Amino acid sequence: MAQIRKMDCQLTIKSSADKFYDVFRTKAQLTPKMSNGLVADIKLLQGDWNSVGAVRLWSYDFEGKSHMVKEMLESVDDENKTMVYKLVEGELLNYYKSWRTILSITPAGAGSLVKWTMEFEKQDENIPDPVKNADYLIALAGNIDAYLLKA
To answer: Tens digit of pLDDT for each residue in 80-136?
Structure first.
């Protein structure tokens, strides 16, 4: 019987928690500019950019190939700087029955701690854990941090 699994990855960054959270909370459409090539494009398909229920189409490069994923902003907790995204379409669903990504940012000294939690249910037990996806999310956070530090 399949079960929901979790995988966490985290990165300490130099940007403030407020500044980094604001990128994902209110400026998602700017991530292609900030990602240093990891995100090619993002389009709003439903709702508005900042509301729960918004559906966005991300075009991104992963392992040297172009991919697209459609996600819905499932919940937001501004006080705790946490956002939950649910995958509704995309290649990942060929391997996973369900996929949610939780982004949490907490202050840590002069910077912050960015934590990504992936919740997923594999299509079958032969599907590997999404370690490369975790690496991608860490690289994305690092690139956005570098951009914010230069701005």
So the answer is: 999 999 999 999 999 999 999 999 999 999 999 999 999 999 999 899 999 999 999
Specify the DSSP class assigned to residue 51: S
Sign of CA dihedral 70, 141, 80, 129: positive
State both tokens at 125. 């037990």
Calculate the CA 62 to chain-centre distance.
13
Of the candidates 135, 129, 78, 73, the one whose C-alpha atom is nearest the C-alpha of residue 102 is 73
CA-based nearest residue to 133, from 88, 89, 84, 100: 100
User: What is the C-alpha separation between 134 and 129, in angstroms, rounded?
Assistant: 10
What's this model's pTM, rounded to 2 decimal places?
0.93
Distance of CA 112 to the CA centre of its chain: 16
Q: Beta partners for 90? A: 69
CA atoms within 13 A on the CB side of 19: 17
The Cα 26–Cα 108 span in angstroms is 22
